[in-house]
Design brief:
alpha/beta, eight-stranded parallel beta sheet, two-stranded antiparallel ribbon, 15% strand, binds zinc ion
Length: 343
Amino acid sequence: MKVVYNEAQKRHYPKHFVASGVITQNPEMPERADRLLAGAIEAGLEHELTVEQGPGPISAVHSPAYIEFLMSAHARWTRRQGASAEVIPNVHPVRSRSGYPRSVDGQAGYHMADTACPISADTWEAVRLSASTAVQATTAVLDGAASVYALSRPPGHHAFADMAGGFCYVNNSGVAAQGLRAVHDRVAILDVDLHHGNGTQGMFYDRADVLTVSLHCDPSRFYPFFWGYEDERGEGAGYGYNMNLPLARHSADAAFLEALDSAIARIRAYSPGALVVALGLDAYEGDPFGGLRVSTDGFGRIGEKIAGLRLPTVIVQEGGYLCDDLGRNLTRFLTGFAAQHTV
Ligand SMILES: [Zn+2]
């Protein structure tokens, strides 16, 4: 299996984060990518350098106004006297989306769900490359590879078609799924990140051609709070094609694997031509977010079970934060997956 990645994705280095009202270092740090790359190499993957893939795949799932905002916001923001080095909104369109502001601070609120995704001078380039990483992995799978691991960083699953959130700007898993649709009539996205894949859900909510399934910590007391409940099943033509499997806080391997069996049964019934795994490793018992208690061995079991679907698979990196076992958890997932995967 290949790991697709470009070190220039590390140039995005967000500083600002608010936790319990305290301003602190943003946990989505570039060092994550070093640990993950080492974990992929340890699993025997061969590194392929990401080459910029152009704007098409991003525009296929994100709105023109949002892309324009991501491209231009930092330059416009820093022209303001006394502005911070990073774009961080101080206003949000609570329960009203009728107007579209023209000023960059208004647009920042409109296009950013929270304050966890600051935009610096280097953000857009890194975000584009992170998406290109997913595109390149998708192309390799369409060209016949059984599976490819896209080390997409910054992550993407909290990004909606027109809104950033939770460290995410462009939805790399969504980009991959849309890319797979060029060949496959039905594509499934299985999100095993600690947090609900709300952006991915939103992106495909009214579509039956992309099934979205997410396992995550119960959002009633956990980010992203406003999405991720069982009764969110899709709308219109997409009704029945979104599945949420919230898990009680601090659930460990047994509960996670049991929910994963339900997810896999749903995907099998859908009979997709290809699969995107939105691979967060933050459900780990030692992850700083501390929501669930999946063990290192648990990630191996998760990989094995997903491989049992026997589908061409693009594995896209989502969350998973700095802790001693971050790389080891990826290694274990990838070796578990590779040991069982045939198509
Ligand atoms: Zn997460």
